[in-house]
Model the fold of this input.
Amino acid sequence: MALFLLKVEALFTYDMITAFIHSCFILPLLFFGQLEVSLDIQKDILQAIKDGQAKKIAAYFGENVSITLKDNVAYYSKFQAEMVLQDFFRTYKAVDVKQVQGVNKDGSQNYIIYEFNTNSRSFRVFVRFAEVNNSMVISELRIE
Done:
């Protein structure tokens, strides 16, 4: 066994072996770790929309967020966006909410589309995430 290792060391440098180990074992673990967090965020937001809990959704807002309600588009601070969303949930109570689409693009940006049904009408809720300081935050929320 020792003879085999000596021959391997002669063919490959320590840096080459280390790089190989990182690319095969450590990097995939980091990638799958991000996806797991993203799935948790998706579940949290789905439940918060069902329950009409603007505060739980706002916990994922970035410092500033683009909010579109019907045809009104504006940029708000995290606190202001929470108040706008809270007002929407007071007006429209969810009867049924389903996630219709969620797309993961290279771990740096995600979006999710929900179908939000009330007794009187239906909405599509589009939530875009952006990676900021190694965490996913909501950068845009559209309810149309």
